[in-house]
Amino acid sequence: LHILKITPRVHKQEIEKQVSKMLENGIIEPSIPEYISPVLLVPRKSIDNNKAWRLCTDFRSVNKSLIADKFPLPRIDDILDQLGRAKWISVLDLMSGFHQIPLDESSQNVTSFSVDSGSYRFTRLPFGLSVSPNSFQRMMSIAFARITPEKAFLYMDDLIVIDCYEKHHVTNLK
Fold first, then answer.
1. Which residues form the Reverse transcriptase domain (predicted)?
2. What is the mean pLDDT of the chain?
3. pTM of the predicted model, to two decimals?
4. How is domain 9-173 classified at the architecture level of CATH?
């Protein structure tokens, strides 16, 4: 039994708006899909507390076929233990971090989705793939390999910089 899901008009408008922005930013491109994953909007926190939406692709079917990336994610409790000794803490959040990582062309077709305006595929690492968090953490670890592990911590798209002294903290941020 296949259940047809109806998308409200206001959601369709938001979906098309976000698809248009991703297309403009080179995050997706038009495609002739071999696979199609459904999309949906989920509420998210906004800076100004207005209603905001995140466009998500439901990759559950795709994820069943992917080989897991075993790169370890940091443990939150280990990071929190280190924060307790700091007097100065800065958190840098990379905007749409996953979308900064190019997706290998051979993997792009499995990321296809369709909306009213057409079919698209990701050219950048999408949210929702089971391999995305570990792959992103690997890339961040490579990019920030020179940072001092006692002074800065990476967790996904957040870089946390700590110190006991303001002068050292500012230097570490630079």
1. 23-174
2. 86
3. 0.81
4. Roll (3.10)
